[in-house]
């Protein structure tokens, strides 16, 4: 599949691996793909994010992703659903961090001697990359670009989609910016 990726899409995958390594994460997750997309400049995804007003709010997105990671990757919607069952995720996070340190639920291993081998991709990240292929095919695009990865992140439930939506970036708004009003929705 990677032979169909554009230079920008490959840079996103490489950047995601670098974000995972920098965080000491054991796997490359969908949030790392989003962080790598936020780093991109002069690409279709960066154009789309700028057109939707996210260019000057990237740090806010990074902070929101960090908060979701502290909740072990739970989206705010998932935390709210658990609250409806009487489970206070914030309290659980506070107690775990009190005993094990800040970020203990994130799965990051900054304090551990992590080996320097290749990071594997989580199921969520793999699903995102597979969905980016389906989106490219649905739009009759010959190659998978970074914009398809961004669209895939907004098309599947989870913290990256929720954080983007909270910042005004949805699958529908991205599709409009990238393909105009007349295109069918993909994914």
From TrEMBL:
PROSITE patterns: CLP_R (PS51903). Gene3D superfamilies: Clp, N-terminal domain. Residues 2-187 form the Clp R domain. Pfam families: Clp_N. Keywords: Repeat. InterPro entries: Clp_N_dom_sf (IPR036628), Clp_R_N (IPR004176). This is Peptidase. It comes from Streptomyces cupreus. The lineage of its organism: Bacteria, Bacillati, Actinomycetota, Actinomycetes, Kitasatosporales.
């Amino acid at each position: 599949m990677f032979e169909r990726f554009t230079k920008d899409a490959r840079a996103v995958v490489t950047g995601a691996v670098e974000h995972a390594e920098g965080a000491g994460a054991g796997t490359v997750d969908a949030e790392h793909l989003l962080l790598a997309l936020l780093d991109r400049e002069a690409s279709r995804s960066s154009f789309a994010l700028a057109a939707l007003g996210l260019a000057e709010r990237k740090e806010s997105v990074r902070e929101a992703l960090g908060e979701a990671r502290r909740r072990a990757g739970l989206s705010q919607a998932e935390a709210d659903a658990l609250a409806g069952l009487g489970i206070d995720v914030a309290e659980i996070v506070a107690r775990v961090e009190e005993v094990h340190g800040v970020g203990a639920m994130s799965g990051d291993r900054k304090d551990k001697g992590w080996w320097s081998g290749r990071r594997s991709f989580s199921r969520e990240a793999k699903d995102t990359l597979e969905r980016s292929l389906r989106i490219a095919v649905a739009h009759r695009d010959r190659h998978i670009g970074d914009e398809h990865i961004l669209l895939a992140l907004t098309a599947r439930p989870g913290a990256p989609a929720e954080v983007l939506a909270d910042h005004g970036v949805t699958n529908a708004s991205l599709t409009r910016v990238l393909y105009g009003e007349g295109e069918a929705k993909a994914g």
